[in-house]
Amino acid sequence: MIDFFRRHLGAKLFLSYLVVILVGAVILGLASRLTVPEAFNSHMGMGLGLGTGQGMTPAPALRPGASAGMQGIGAGRGMVSDLFQSFQASFNEALLLALLAAGVVAILVSLLLSRSVIAPIRVLTVASQHIAGGHYAERVPVPGADELGQLAHSFNQMAEKLEQVESMRRQLIGDVSHELLTPLTAIKGSMEGLMDGILPASPETYQQIHQEADRLARLVDDLQELSRVEAGAYPLDIRPVAVSTLVNTTLKRFAAQAQAKLIILQADLPADLPPVLADQDRFTQVLTNLVGNALQYTPEGGQVTIQSTHHGDEILFSVVDTGVGIPAEHLPHLFTRFYRVDKSRSRQAGGGSGIGLTIARHLVEAHGGNILARSEGEGHGSTFTFTLKVAK
Ligand SMILES: Nc1ncnc2c1ncn2[C@@H]1O[C@H](COP(=O)(O)OP(=O)(O)O)[C@@H](O)[C@H]1O
Ligand SMILES: [Mg+2]
Predict the structure, then answer these.
(1) pLDDT at 337
(2) Is 373:331 a contact under the CB 8 Å cutoff?
(3) Helices (H), the chain
(4) 33, 64, 190, 360: least buried by Cβ within 10 Å?
(5) Cα angle for residues 144, 150, 151 (degrees, 5° grid)
(6) 324, 334, 355: which to mutate for ligand 1, most atoms within 8 A of CB?
């Protein structure tokens, strides 16, 4: 029995309503017992000392031996006392009946009330079991704005998040297998061509195969880096960093590549640039990603510039290029993994798999900054800007 109450919230609620009803009934009984004689006295217009207890002291006029001629009064007193007894009996009877009626109604109402509280909780329980079973589309109705309503609302939010994560996971597996399949198919095709003697066993053929294998290796590297970055499984040693040295290192690293493409690669930094709060290696990684893209998507004779400006407690870093630009409808998606504006173009151009900017975004956000892309449209160049906090 106790176990039943312990395991059922509805039973507990009902029990607590029942306790309230019982306490109410007991108080009603006690209070009427104490107050009825006094009320009777005062309504009969004289103090006759009926009953016992407080507030029932007989009026001075009725004290024994107060005056002569007490007989008449004594007889009246007996009559009133009988009257009171009958009155009390009928009052008790009426009270008992009223209490019974009120009790039954109260019990019914409390049953209904505890059910109405329990019903949404039951719905939540069933829905969460469905979700645990992998049915992420499950939602529950929100019953009003009280705590239960809030619980249902948060439950729905959680279910939606889970659904998103699940669909992202599916999408990721699809994307990864597709990305892996493309170079693998190329390698397999070339190999078959070689075996069948359709393709000549020339250095070009081998180089082609090597290139595809290289793509595969880079993709796997990128994926590993992405999973590390997404899981936050990398050390982040944030401290004041003088950025001009880091920017110059990046410029040097890409100098040969820029020269080969006849692109002017330069930095435009203010002389009094304060140090920023950043992890040196991760900052360089973001910059490398952005400059690498800029060089990749800028044709010969173009220009790539690393700029920085100081705004309040932030420093904005921009990588500006005069390259192919990005149509406006693609801008919001660039930082989503595997997103490429033009899949075939970036593949031919030796581009990656659309992971670089996703990694960059994660790294910038881990520093508490933002990253965004701007472009005046196709053929009008692109600008990628990220923010970092100034070291005080
Ligand atoms: N500087 C840029 N100019 C034009 N398009 C760019 C530039 N940087 C990135 N993009 C576009 O954003 C996509 C995603 O970039 P990224 O995540 O680095 O992937 P990818 O591996 O293709 O370089 C690229 O495929 C390209 O379409
Ligand atoms: Mg890239």
Answers:
(1) 85
(2) yes
(3) 2-7, 9-44, 70-132, 147-196, 203-230, 243-260, 280-296, 343-348, 356-366
(4) 64
(5) 115
(6) 334
Residue 273 gets which letter from DSSP? P
Q: Which residues contact 375 (CB under 8 A, 6 or more apart)?
A: 325, 326, 327, 328, 331, 381, 382, 383
The confidence score (pLDDT) of residue 318 equals 97
How high is the pLDDT of residue 58? 41
Q: Which pTM value belongs to this model?
A: 0.66
Closest by CA position to 260, among listed 143, 350, 157, 167? 350
Distance 344 CA to ligand 1 centre (A): 12
Shortest-distance atom of ligand 1 to CA 323: 3
Question: Is 95 within 8 Å of 32 (Cβ atoms)?
Answer: yes
- Which residue owns the Cα nearest ligand 1 atom 27? 341
Tell me if 358 sits within 8 A of 226, measured CB to CB. Answer: yes
Ligand nearest to the CA of 352: 1
Return the pLDDT at 382.
Answer: 96
Q: Please tell me the predicted confidence (pLDDT) of residue 70.
A: 52
The ligand 1 atom nearest the CA atom of 343: 25
Q: For ligand 1, is residue 335 a contact (CB within 6 Å)?
A: no
Q: What residues in the chain have per-residue pLDDT under 50? A: 51-69
Say how many Å lie between the CA of residue 294 and the centre of ligand 2. 9
